[in-house]
Specification:
Rossmann fold; about 30% helix
Length: about 290
């Protein structure tokens, strides 16, 4: 049986410039597709590996149940790679080096399990960004809050709710100065995000960063120490999880950025972790009932 990632990677033959030149298709949430009972929103936050650098498929068929909030215009469109498209949504001109990240594969995996939902992806990732920019008061934190609130204000005939945040970041903090405080700072960021969005149990799913290059000197590398901090996140904060992606060695040739195949697998694994967190939430709610 083919996985979502194997199907998607079969068409990842050309670069982003070869992506179908059709304009992005607007989404009207006021009238969701037939059978949709609710709209679930997910924040995509972090740096370039969340933004995506994998090769974009030459052809794409967007699912009418997956939407993306355009990175520049704040308009809803049917989701397709690159989710962090920063150019004109009609002419597709402009933008940068954005490509395939884990967000779309995550949404597709959700729909396999939950066919009656519509997924709204809210891309916010910025390449090279340090964690401090994502902490309360930081420029990217403020922008993520703005976009999350904008998405939540979307008018629809079905309920709209923020259901989770996906985090892929850490390379920029893998330094002797920043790495030792990464774990504590990330926990504070999660606390602030949940409080400011009024979702105290918001599921937060992280993934490890790539360790493609051998350490320059003996001992653990800065990236491996960041990954250790990510692994213990579930012990630091409830309703969090970390995907182990260290076995994925596919990158775009620079030893830093996951290729499309690896990014898609990360997205699928994030979906699996998200469902685990959802099961925990349901279990805790049932225990609290009289």
């Amino acid at each position: 049986m083919k996985t979502i990632s194997s199907i998607m990677c079969a068409v990842c033959l050309l670069g982003a410039s070869a992506c179908a030149a059709e304009a992005l298709k607007p989404v009207a949430f006021a009238k969701p597709p037939a059978g949709v009972e609710r709209i679930e929103l997910f924040l995509l936050i972090g740096q370039s590996n969340m933004k995506g650098r994998g090769e974009v498929p030459a052809t794409q068929t967007p699912d009418p149940r997956i939407a993306m909030l355009h990175f520049k215009t704040d308009q809803w469109f049917l989701a397709r790679h690159p989710l962090h498209h920063a150019g004109d949504p009609v002419t597709l001109k402009g933008g940068g080096n954005e490509g395939v990240g884990p967000g779309l594969a995550f949404a597709q995996a959700l729909l396999v399990r939950e066919p009656k939902i519509m997924v709204g992806l809210v891309p916010c990732a910025v390449g090279g960004s340090k964690l401090n920019l994502w902490m309360k008061g930081g420029r990217l934190y403020v922008e993520a809050l703005r976009r999350a609130r904008l998405a939540l204000a979307t008018k629809s005939s079905v309920p709209v709710a923020l259901k989770g945040a996906l985090w892929l970041q850490g390379e920029a903090d893998a330094t002797p100065e920043l790495q030792p405080t990464y774990q504590a700072r990330l926990a504070r960021m999660i606390d602030a995000l949940r409080a400011d969005l009024a979702v105290p149990e918001l599921p937060f799913v992280a993934a490890t960063i790539g360790e493609f290059r051998a350490p320059a000197k003996a001992g653990p590398s800065g990236k491996s120490l960041i990954n250790e901090a990510l692994f213990v996140l579930p012990k630091q904060r409830a309703h969090t999880a970390c995907v182990d992606a260290r076995d994925l060695q596919g990158h775009i040739g620079d030893g830093v950025h996951y290729n499309a195949a690896s990014a898609n697998i990360i997205g699928e694994r994030m979906a699996a972790k998200y469902f685990e967190l959802q099961a925990q939430l349901v279990g805790s709610e049932q225990k609290g009932k009289p």
